[in-house]
Amino acid sequence: xxxxxxxxxxxxxxxxxxxxxxxxxxxxxxxxxxxxxxxxxxxxxxxxxxxxxxxxxxxxxxxxxxxxxxxxxxxxxxxxxxxxxxxxxxxxxxxxxxxxxxxxxxxxxxxxxxxxxxxxxxxxxxxxxxxxxxxxxxxxxxxxxxxxxxxxxxxxxxxxxxxxxxxxxxxxxxxxxxxxxxxxxxxxxxxxxxxxxxxxxxxxxxxxxxxxxxxxxxxxxxxxxxxxxxxxxxxxxxxxxxxxxxxxxxxxxxxxxxxxxxxxxxxxxxxxxxxxxxxxxxxxxxxxxxxxxxxxxxxxxxxxxxxxxxxxxxx
Length: 315
Prior knowledge:
Layout: H1 3-29, E1 31-33, E2 39-41, H2 45-65, H3 72-92, H4 98-117, H5 127-148, E3 153-158, E4 175-180, H6 183-186, H7 195-232, H8 237-246, H9 262-290, H10 301-314
Helix pairs in contact: 1-3, 1-7, 2-3, 2-4, 3-5, 3-7, 4-5, 5-7
């Protein structure tokens, strides 16, 4: 079996494993454990809002790229990415109250900023977005911990000087509570929250969903690369090698080759190959013309550049 026949199967497996990871991670994010050790759900409000955020992000991505999935693998990858983003967002949002709506506003603004960058491909789980989502998960864990020990506030700050005076009369004004909430806003079970196990499930679920999302996008990207390789492989071997040297695989996604139909893909490769071959000829012609001028010294920087170009030309 050759590499060209193995690669599509690998891409399919990546997408299939991604679906399993997202499903398992979403299940963990949707569960919590009460103080009596019983499992219960976290509610549908956060999941519904996470689905709306994922839908808005997906529409923005399609509008920026102008492309839709073209086959079963990319369509399945898109579904897995959508569900993964919905589960992740729903799992990191505060279960209720004004905090949740503030977080939704921050996420929508962040995804709109990603769209304006016009990065090709559904790159939702990248460094900045992963940090934002992880910070929201930490905030959810923090307020859940505060509630599990019956401190119904995000943070309590001691007032300088007043807090140093040991008088019961001053206790109400010795500290300031920031961000008060109630058990109903946090969606706690009636028996109270078992924080340790719930925290472990939410953290593992977040990691599984994020890994599944990244793997689904990676599998879809590899599948598109396999499709482009297949089209280039229909050329004579020497011409196919020349085309892949002119248009390296690392640039295919950034050049917008992913998601194109076969006809548009062939025309785009033709245009890129002609443009880059012409540019290579122009560079070569300029180098040969420069040889007629006085050559720089061998030990200088300019001489080193000339020697490097000659070695590249000879190879």
